[in-house]
Design goal:
Layout (H helix, E strand, L loop, with lengths): L1 H9 L11 H15 L13 H5 L12
């Protein structure tokens, strides 16, 4: 994680973090509510592929963290 943080800072990021994939499952309802309330504004792509946002292993086989 330390190496990743250093690379992110060198690229101009102020902050960088990593979470386990299982955390995302708990956030699905929150994301769906956020979209229903229209908070995604013009970012209509946020409503697509919610199952892949919930489970990145569907997008990248074997993903354990993001």
């Amino acid at each position: 994680m330390e190496v990743l943080s250093e690379i992110a800072k060198a690229c101009g990021f102020d902050a960088c973090g990593v979470v386990p994939v299982d955390v995302l499952s708990r956030e699905r309802e929150r994301l769906e509510r956020w979209i229903r309330q229209g908070f995604h504004a013009g970012m209509n792509y946020m409503a697509n592929n919610i199952e892949k946002r919930e489970n990145p292993a569907l997008l990248v086989e074997g993903a354990r963290s993001v």
